Structures are given as C-alpha cells and as structure tokens.
Fold these 3 entries.
Entry 1:
Amino acid sequence: MKIFMLKSLCLTALLLIAVLTGMQLANNGIQKMKGYDDPNLETAVSFHEKGSQVRATILGNDISSHDIAAKKKKLEEISAFNFFSSMGKKMSDGISGASEKLIHLIAD
C-alpha cells in the first residue's frame, strides 16, 4: 500500500509539472505567433532571485517560503477537529487489532 501511494504521489507530481510545462510552452508559442511581446500575457511559471531569496510566480500568483510557513502556522493554530478523520483512525485501529488477534489465533 505504501508503494502504491508513493507511486501515485510521484505520478501526480509528474503530471503537475507536465501541465505547467505545457502551459509555459503554449504561452511561448502564442508570443512567437503574435510577433510582439504582449504585457497582458503572463508566463505560467517564473522564478526571480533577489540575493539569497528565490521567489516563484505560478500563474501570476507570487509564492515564497514565508507564505507557506505562515499558512502552516495558521493551520496549526486552527487545529480543527475532523470527525471523519477520528472515526477512520478508530476504525483502522479496531480492524488492525482484530486482524492481529485472528493471525495469532491461527498461528498458535
């Protein structure tokens, strides 16, 4: 199951990169076709370096490590209770315990 999830995560990341690359190539093709640089057309992905800090822009939205850290801190502060998540954990613990007991019963 872990290998399946790892493969799925890698495939999803690869597809996301492929989509962003395709958008960038399409944007470059549109600019070449027009023959001039249109300021209304934005690049799909761009990186800007200012000293040691690297900023990324994806689809016109600025992304930085400070934004991600602030969002992570906000999520930790919320620490909302998820009923379905807790029920899933209890159910998985129960099934794991029952299967362990069954395996020990069969093995003995």
Note: The longest strand covers residues 45-50.
Entry 2:
Amino acid sequence: MSRLRSDFWVSAYLRRCSVEGVEAALRKRGAAEAGAVFVKVDRLDGTASLYGPAPQLFLDESGERLFSPILKDVMPLDVEERMAREMRFDSDLWLVEVDDRAGRHFLDLAAED
C-alpha cells in the first residue's frame, strides 16, 4: 500500500490540530510527494519536543506515517539547532510547529519494544 503524499498529510494534520483547538503552523514546506515530516511541539513554558519519522524497522504495510521522539522536553533553541542540522542534510523536509501547553501532538508513535 502506498503512503499518503507529504503535502496531503501535512494539510490533514494542520486541520486536525485546528479541530482540537491547538495552534499549529507550517514552518517549512518540503517535497510534496515524499518529504520527511518533523513536528516541533512547544509547550509554551520554556520546553519543547521534536518528533520525526520513525526508523524504517517500525514501519508496517499499513502505509501510515509513524513518528518517534527525537528530543523530549528540551529548550526550544535545542530543537531549532537540531532542525537546522536536519535541513542542511535534507532540504526537502517539512517542519510543522504546534503550540500546546499540554504537549499534545496527535501523532501515531512507533511502538518501541
């Protein structure tokens, strides 16, 4: 089964956040078909988390995008520095920023057994 295009997934994700009453914004547009998607969650208390594509070993045939935490409860500047490195490596990535005091992200996380 093929995976949903990145541009469609990001559009649906932004809508989901809006429906839940959570502020989210597209910070960087990547490749429409298959750009990697990263999500920064800013808790608005001086901490943030970063989620990115799960390693391939966690992917299944469902075609769903799975995420794994990259940085948890760090300073927002730490997330920005990490994303700057990621963008130097992959200029086609997407970056979505979510502002939520509860830290909600609405992502499907890969199971880490």
Note: The chain has one domain: 6-99.
Entry 3:
Amino acid sequence: MSWSIPKPMESITNYNVMMLHGALGADKGIKEDNSLVEANRDTSFRGKGHIGKYDSENRLTYWLSKNAFEEPDSMRNVHDSYLYSWRSFTNPANSSKNNAVELGDRTWNKDKKFGGRRALVEEAQEVKAIITQEVVTDSGIRIDTTEKGQTALEIIRQNPDRYRQLASRYILIGHSMGGVVSREYVQGNFYNGDVDKIITLDSPHEGTGALNMIVAKNVSEDFGENIKKNILKSVPNTVSSAAFFSLVLTGDFGNLISGVVGLACYLALDEIGDAAATLASPQKYFSTDSLVHYVDPKKHGFQTIDSLNRRPYIADSLPMFRIMAGRNGMTFTDPQDHLAAFYYMGDRATCFCWQIHLLS
C-alpha cells in the first residue's frame, strides 16, 4: 500500500527556468561569427542582453537563485543553477516573431553562422548535460569517459531513461518584450510542446509606441545642418525685422552679434540636448529595426503584435500564463487599464481575459 502527494508545477527538479530579456538595441546582440563556441564551453561571452548575473547581488538572476530557488552559492553559475540566463538574442532589435525562432526552433542555426550556438531551449539543456559511460578501447581496456555539453546531450537523447532524468521542460520568465517572444514561441508553428508555464513581467502585450518615440528622438547625421536651418528659421521670429535693421543702421553691431550668438547658442544647446539624450540613452533604435514595426499597436498584418493577438487561443495546447504588471507599465496600450485586458483572437473573436497581478 502506498500513497503520494503530487508536486506543484513549480517543482523545479525537472524544469529549466529560462529568463528572457526585453527590447534592446541591435548593438546589444551577438554578431555573426562561425567560430563561436557552444554554450557549455563559453566562459566569458554572454552578450549585453542577459537580464542578470549569477554572482551579482543586485541582479534578478541572483535574487531568484537565492530567494525563490534557495540555491547555495556553489550552484549560482550557468552550469549548475536551475536558472538559465546565459546570453542575449543575436539581434534583440529583431521582431519578437524572429527572436522566438531563436528561442525554440532547433534548426535556428543550421547554417552555423553563429558557430556552436543553438536555440536557447537547447542551450539551457546542454550547459547542464553531463554523462559518464564505459568505453572499451581497441586493446580491450575498459575506461570511463565523461562527456559534457552538446555531445553529452546527443548521447542522452538516445537513451529514454537517461533523458527523463535531464530537465527537458521549461518555465519561461520574460521581461518586457521577452514575454511577447515567449508567446510567439508557444503560439507559433514550430512549438515543441515543451513549456508548462510562462511568466511575463511588464510585457507590452497590446503593443507600445515607445520605440517609435525613441526613433523620433534619434539625431540624424546632418546635425550641423539642422542647427543652421533652425537658426535661419528662428531669427525672423525672435527678432523683429524693424529691430534687426535698427541695430544694423545704428551700427550697434555689438548687441546684434550678441543677440544672434545667444540665439544660436540656445538653439545649438537644444540640438545638443537631443543628441546627448540619445547618446545617453541605454538603447538606440532605428526605423529599419523590425521590432519597431512589430510592436507598434497601429500596425497590422504579418510580423506585428496584432497578428499574434489574433491567433486562436487553444487552451489545451498552451502552457499556463501568469502576466504581471507594474502600475503604469507597458503591459497594455492604456496603462490605466491594468485590472484586466481582453483579447479577441481568431475569426470567432473569442474573448480571453488575462489574469493580472499588480505590483506596487
């Protein structure tokens, strides 16, 4: 006679918990390089888009490791932790649909443009894959060999009993656009049915115009020309024609020069202020970045967030969602409408209400 208590889904003994970063400029990604080593052997390069370090107390990865998963210090690294936050997307400014391919499509790097890197769901497995097995040499000597990383993962996959011991299912934690990427994966046509839970943190599920605003603030290359044009436009409006010619006719060139120089400085500082704001901004986006088009709530059709929200919601085939939003965050188009959001998906206009947990 026996009895058992089922573990909650949050039991992490057989889960990879993956953290996906939000929107970033293209420069934060990984450039094409066919010499990049596989994740298991990469000890230094994570890119600039990972959302936490394993050894920094002020980062989210460390906090979750310590407080949520109660991992000892010896586990707080990519090879041992339940969390996987190893690298950024190769192009964070790509559309969420394209980045979802990099998240879960096993054929993502089939051309080896990024060397030994693989889809993120595979990397989360391979960094923890290790196997020791007995090998018989040509001389008949039996020795134990240990394999790690991709080689170990391929061997383990050939043995169902061993594969079941390796975490092969996922809980996705997506910040900002990372949450939308998670949805694009599980609602896409290359989904492997391997995700049991998705947690999104302030993700723009209805789109946002924030990237358009950043693009509009980017200073163009004709920085100097803009200053000149603005000065020529503003002088007649700032100094009346009568006052301007009065200064010329009376020979009061000192005040005339002072006025023009002062006006020029004012306008130049305004331009420089825009430039400084752009340079100081942590991200730079351009109109050519596919993410700008994708996340625009006014865009429709292929490669837009609108197309994602119009897909049928098939509850039986999708994981559990928990959508968490900060007050006045970007989870919804209207930041004041933060109690519930309704999506009309598919031709049947099925109304689906997301569960919201408000954070102060």
Note: Residues 253-280 form the longest helix (28 residues).
